[in-house]
Design brief:
Layout (H helix, E strand, L loop, with lengths): L2 H22 L5 H20 L1
Helix pairs in contact: 1-2
Length: 50
């Protein structure tokens, strides 16, 4: 695993946590969740191309 790939995996994990935190709020913000999920998907796609 390269340093770049490890950094992407770390960001992906952090986004997972942020998505979980936002989802468990009493009134989750749908726009924030959508943005976080898009970022996570972009990272996943970038990781898969490495």
């Amino acid at each position: 695993m390269t340093t770049h790939q490890a950094a992407l995996e770390t960001k992906h994990t952090a986004l997972d946590r942020r998505i979980a935190e936002e989802s468990t709020r009493p009134l989750p913000d749908a726009q924030v969740l959508a943005g976080l999920k898009k970022q996570k998907l972009r990272l996943k796609e970038e990781i898969s191309t490495l």
